[in-house]
C-alpha cells in the first residue's frame, strides 16, 4: 500500500522486473495482481519479507541473490509506527528492528 505500491507500479509501467517484498501473502498477492493488470507487465513478483525479523531478511536476501541475475534498484520503504513495545525473537525492539536494522541488513546483504 502507499508509497511502496506506487513505486512498484511506476517501475512495472517502465517494464522493469519488479519484486514486491511484503509481510502479508494475501495483501502482497492482491497488489501484484493489481499492478500486473494496470501495466500489462507479467514480471511483477511477490516475495515474503518481514524486516522486523533478521532471519526473514537473511532468507529473502539469499533467495534474491540465488534467483536474480542482478538488482538495479532497491527501495527500502517498509516501516511501522505507534506499535506497543515488543521484542523480536532475536531480542530486538520491534520498531527499531523493522524500521532500521532490517533494512540496513538487507541493503548490506544485497550489495554483493
UniProtKB/TrEMBL annotation:
Keywords: Oxidoreductase. GO terms for molecular function: oxidoreductase activity. It holds the Pfam family adh_short. The keyword Oxidoreductase applies. SUPFAM superfamilies: NAD(P)-binding Rossmann-fold domains. InterPro entries: NAD(P)-bd_dom_sf (IPR036291), SDR_fam (IPR002347). The keyword Oxidoreductase applies. Belongs to the short-chain dehydrogenases/reductases (SDR) family. This is RDH11 dehydrogenase. It comes from Nyctibius grandis.
Amino acid at each position: 500500500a502507499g508509497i511502496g505500491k506506487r513505486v512498484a507500479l511506476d517501475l512495472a509501467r517502465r517494464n522493469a522486473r519488479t519484486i514486491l517484498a511484503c509481510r502479508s501473502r494475501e495483501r502482497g498477492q492482491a497488489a501484484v495482481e493489481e499492478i500486473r493488470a494496470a501495466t500489462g507487465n507479467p514480471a511483477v513478483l511477490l516475495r515474503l519479507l518481514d524486516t522486523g525479523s533478521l532471519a526473514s531478511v537473511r532468507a529473502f536476501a539469499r533467495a534474491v541473490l540465488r534467483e536474480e541475475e542482478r538488482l538495479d534498484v532497491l527501495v527500502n520503504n517498509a516501516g511501522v509506527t505507534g506499535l506497543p513495545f515488543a521484542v523480536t525473537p532475536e531480542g530486538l525492539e520491534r520498531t527499531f528492528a523493522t524500521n532500521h536494522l532490517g533494512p540496513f541488513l538487507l541493503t548490506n546483504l544485497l550489495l554483493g
